[in-house]
Design brief:
Elements: E1 29-30, E2 36-37, E3 45-46, E4 51-52, H1 57-67, E5 80-89, E6 108-117, E7 132-140, E8 143-150, H2 163-170, H3 181-189, H4 195-202, E9 216-217, E10 222-225, E11 231-240, H5 249-258, H6 262-272, E12 278-287, E13 313-323, H7 327-332, E14 345-346, H8 351-367, E15 424-426, E16 429-431, H9 437-441, H10 446-454, H11 457-471, H12 476-489, H13 491-506
Antiparallel strand pairs: 1-2, 3-4, 5-6, 5-13, 6-7, 7-8, 9-11, 10-11, 10-14, 11-12, 12-13, 15-16
Bound molecules: protoporphyrin IX containing FE.
Cofactor: heme
Domain Catalase core: 30-414
Protein name: catalase
């Protein structure tokens, strides 16, 4: 773990960040650029009048930084608290799932969990009657797996097109900016599929006493795939080891007045006191062939699988044993995504899940920034190998001097790997990243050959000269590879380019490339 940031990943900055000490032996105040500041309580002024001097850049910088302290709050789940911990496997499930972090009992994986309410803003009471978010980031050796779940096994709607409307109806009235029970019930009374979630939310479980005293659910159906490629549908359950405890309406209203951050404080103090919040991680497992026969659509998020039909099987334990050091760096900047899978865990056709696969990283790009994956709390523990580069606030090595395109001739990465999670059997066919067969069977030279033959002699001359001029700038082996393609296209085209290139190489005129 990186002691400076309090998170598990280093930010890659190798420069020393030790405390600066002045001649008195006491720590120095500095500007953001590291220059000493003699007094951080008094602005730089001149003479008896004490007029401020524009040259007190430190003053303006300090205010400018304050002006920019907030990032947009999450559009939902804005009020939350988080903690670090670990996941430990307690049962061998390698016959069901090939994910390496599940490979053997006793194996531990670092995690970061964030709990939240949904409709409330960042400063709202923890004690609202609402669903609670239960998001866990597993930093595995195969990349991050995020279980971005809730404390209920079902959801309000079953088609993602309704989600933005649902959120609007739960938030504030566009005119009054007050909570609007009319909009709340207007929407729900027009969406009967919400009844299951509605009853849970208005039951005692609608106001969990603390984050420790509630269960977590992946809610959606997911797919587990083993090493042999055999798949099962699964649902994830996190069963609290501290018992379910809820607050009555009256208790919640009263505590909201006296201790609005009740659940946040409980998480902090229970970890400080060594009373580590813990959950049993269980799965329900459904053979694929059961899905079409089950009484309820197993991919409808408003339905559960009855425990008597698919009993809970314990797989591991989730334990939170370390508080965050800095709320903004670790909790506010945390970005979870249902689209972050590792090999062995895949999506199901649940429409809500499918739409969530994209929504979260999109939200993070807006809320935190393009390079949110490089923020220490989100950074995987494995090396990231990607051709994405640049953008605002690059804090990694940005790929260094390695090529930023693929395919290339330099980094020896295989073109495809059929063992990876985005290549798998599906009832609609094989899901893969291979090009359609039609493309492979087509002759990619036929049409350019027709074009070459249609060109006037003058156009041919210019084309040949333009290509020869440009390709001169490429490495010899790349020139030769490209000449091979020109030969496949048209012999006349290839030999004319070859001749022109040889002439250009001998010519004393300097290389010019304008395209
Ligand atoms: C179409 C359905 C849904 C959409 C489009 C959606 C979208 C979003 C978005 C945009 C955020 C804010 C993300 C951010 O700013 O970092 C969010 C947060 C969250 N959502 Fe959803 N959501 C949906 C349904 C669900 C469901 C079904 C669950 C649980 C099973 C869920 C659990 C969460 C949690 C736990 C968070 C907070 C994550 C954190 O702690 O940072 N959402 N959702």
């Amino acid at each position: 773990m990186d002691a400076e940031s309090g998170s598990k990943a280093s930010n890659g900055n190798s420069k020393s960040a030790s405390v600066r000490v002045g001649s008195s032996g006491k720590p120095l105040h500095t500007t953001l650029a590291g220059a000493p500041v003699s007094d951080d309580n008094n602005s730089v002024t001149i003479g008896q009048s004490g007029h401020l001097l524009f040259e007190d850049v430190h003053l303006f910088e300090k205010q400018a930084r304050l002006n920019r302290e907030r990032v947009p709050e999450r559009v939902v789940h804005a009020k939350g608290a988080g903690a670090h911990g670990y996941f430990e496997v307690t049962k061998d499930v390698s016959n069901l799932c090939k994910a390496k972090f599940l490979s053997e009992p006793g194996k531990r994986t670092p995690v970061f969990a964030r709990f939240s309410s949904v409709a409330a803003e960042r400063g709202f009471t923890d004690l609202a009657r609402d669903v609670r978010g239960f998001a866990v980031k597993f930093y595995t050796e195969e990349g991050n797996w995020d279980m971005t779940g809730n404390n209920t096994p079902v959801f309000w709607v079953r088609d993602p097109l309704k989600f933005p409307d649902f959120v609007h109806s739960q938030k504030r009235n566009p005119k009054t900016n007050a909570k609007d029970p009319n909009a709340f019930w207007d929407f729900l009374s027009l969406v009967p599929e919400s009844m299951h979630q509605l009853l849970i939310t208005f039951s005692p479980r609608g106001v969990p006493a603390t984050y420790r005293n509630m269960n977590g659910y992946g809610s959606h159906t997911f797919k587990w795939v083993n090493k042999e490629g055999k798949a099962h549908w699964v649902k994830f359950h996190l069963v609290t080891e501290h018992g379910i405890k809820n607050l009555t309406h009256e208790e919640a209203v009263s505590l909201s007045g006296s201790k609005p951050d009740y659940a946040t404080e409980d998480l902090l103090t229970s970890i400080e006191e060594g009373n580590f919040p813990a959950w049993k991680f269980c799965v329900q497992v459904m053979p694929l062939e059961d899905a079409p026969k089950y009484k309820w659509d197993p991919f409808d998020l408003t339905k559960v699988w009855l425990h008597k039909d698919y009993p809970l099987m314990e797989v591991g334990r989730l334990v939170l044993d370390r508080n965050v050091e800095n709320y903004h760096a670790e909790v506010e900047q945390a970005a979870f995504s249902p689209g972050s899978f590792v090999p062995g865990i895949e999506a199901s056709p649940d429409r809500i899940l499918q739409s969530r696969l994209f929504a979260y990283d999109d939200a993070a790009r807006y809320r935190i920034g393009t390079n949110f994956h490089d923020v220490p709390i989100n950074k995987p523990i494995v090396k990231v190998q990607t051709y994405s580069r640049d953008g605002a606030m690059v804090v990694s090595d940005n790929g260094g001097s390695k090529p930023n395109y693929y395919p290339n001739s330099y980094d020896n990465l295989p073109r495809n790997d059929p063992t990876q999670p985005d290549v798998h059997p599906h009832e609609g066919g094989t899901v893969d990243r291979f090009p359609p067969r039609k493309w492979e069977e087509q002759d990619d030279y036929e049409q350019p050959r027709m074009l070459w033959k249609l060109m006037s002699e003058e156009d041919k001359e210019q084309t040949v000269s333009n290509i020869a001029n440009h390709i001169r700038g490429a490495a010899e082996f790349i020139q030769e590879r490209q000449m091979g393609l020109f030969r496949k296209c048209d012999g006349d085209l290839a030999s004319r380019i070859e001749k022109k290139l040889a002439e250009k190489k001998k010519s004393p005129e300097p290389y010019t490339m304008i395209a």
